[in-house]
Amino acid sequence: MSRTEHTVASAETRDDWSTADAGALYRVDAWGGGWFRVNDNGHVSAVCAGVEVDLVDVVEGLRARGVGTPVLLRLTDILDARLRQLRNAFDGAMRENGYRGAYRGVYPIKVNQQHHVVSEIAAVGRELGFGLEAGSKPELLAVIAMTSSDDDQLIICNGFKDERYIDMAVLAAKLGRSIVPVVENLDELRLILQAGERYGVRPDIGVRVKLSSKGAGRWKDSAGTRSKFGLFVSEAMEVIHVLRERGMLDCLKLLHCHVGSQIQDISRIKDSVAELAHIYVEMSRLGAGLELLDVGGGLGVDYRGEQVNDESSMNYTLEEFASDVVYRITSACDEAGVEHPAIVTECGRAMVAYSSVLVFDILGATGPARAERPGAGVDETPRDEDPQPIRDLREALSMTDGARLDESYHDAKNALADAISSFRLGYISLEQRALAERLYWRVCRRLRESMRGDDDYAQELTELDESLAEVYFANFSLFQSMPDAWAIDQLFPIMPLHRLNERPTRRVIIGDLTCDSDGRIDRFIGEDGPTGVLDVHELRDEAYYMGAFLVGAYQETLGDLHNLFGDVHAVHLRVEDGRWSIEEIVRGDTSAEVLEYLQHQPKAFQSRMARDCDKAVRASRMTAGEAGALMKFYESSLSGYTYFEHTGGAG
What we know:
By secondary structure, the chain is an alpha/beta fold. It folds into 4 domains: 3-75 and 356-367 and 469-586, Lyase, Ornithine Decarboxylase, Chain A, domain 1, CATH 2.40.37.10; 99-346, Alpha-Beta Barrel (TIM Barrel); 369-466, Methane Monooxygenase Hydroxylase, Chain G, domain 1; 599-638. The chain contains 24 helices and 21 strands. The protein starts with a helix and ends in a 13-residue tail after the last helix.
């Protein structure tokens, strides 16, 4: 039995349930990075600037201000703290290794391009020596403007570049920006040199190389010789040759690689950085004016909180990452007698993931537990003429308190299959099929209660937990707010935000508001790896709030308008004078806005509806008052939130 099951099972035998039990069940300390905890009120708190912010208090406060769920909470203090944590890790590693170069953290804005997030990173980055990375023309336009107050703030230009992109980068250098366009293919080098001549600029130039070292995890193919971006080493040698012929080898300032995103295995990072460092010293020996060594992104986020070699985890710490990067660069440079470069990282995921929490409420539930309860429409009285599958199910039910629990389970599954097959052939009635289903789910529920805590039934118990799980319908769109959970099976910590001083009695999966069968979450953080069900509380006639954590990276930028569910409300919070305060409220999309995104014309829709209402009045199908009420409702709906808007509790 896992430690999580032991926690639940032990608590189920006691009259009490503590917040410590809840913290252990949901593993908050493991994945929370010290920024989230279960407080004495049984609520989840975020630790911001040393102050505990009760997230339920925040949600209720927002609700009183007219901002309902779903809502994305952006915790600015956690973002700031994470940036400083990254800076401190590299500062410590550099002191430990006697490193003589600088550290320049760079934030790739593709990870979360929201203005408030990028502005905050740019502002804190000016103090910490951090810069920004652009991967497209629109991103570059934003980054150039957002660095106007500090010409020393490093700008890295990645991605495919056309002439206009490169012209903008070269002209930004003429403005005084510290900007480095990175050569991804040899055509870009030609365009950079031409732009430099055209505008009278000797541009700083970077080169991205393909390493032979392999990546790890989901994005392992973004590294190695088959990676999408970068030059082969032979092509990098051609860059050196071209620049030497032009007397511009001193312009080659940066060497770059990308190992991949969410690297789960530290050994991959060690190999890649060691290879990159040796390329750096060799290019320096050939006369390149290199000053910056960009090891790219890859620093993982431990979504599972287990520090294991898994796609949703990582087998190392932030401090170990910094130490290994600095050590390998130091060793290569010292051995070759090369000056230590400024180390650049582009660890966007690790910078922003912790700072956002998606809060949603539960609208209702369905599941087998409801199907097995006695109710109208199904006569459960035993009869001599009952078909064999129903007699077998009654027999299996009688065995649920005995010693042969697995036999009872297998018999019940076979009996239900026989009942369905008989129904298809017309041998049993609809009422008898309904009775078979009800008896089957009753057998399953009783077996789960009898098997729990017995290691001999681990496989059967797992099957029962998943088949008996209720579906809790959540007020959000998976495709808009957590697309990685659907697209790549990314695990995010999900848990109730309150009632954590109560023992959870329901095991569920989460279904979203969309009418897509994929709009569900059925993989959750578990003590011994992913689990198919989540322990939650029974719904009452009041709001039931849940949170999805560590969603600050990529989720907003990748979200789509499935079923026309738009952006959720986003609220930026900061602690001031020991209390949480709202920096900014960004209202979520209205129905009219998402329609306009797809080239629909809401005003034209209103005109059509008005004409239809007038026709209905003239045909005496509705009164003028009803037509006016319908138009008022239609217009207010167009200007309203795309998500469920509450008038009461969860029900």
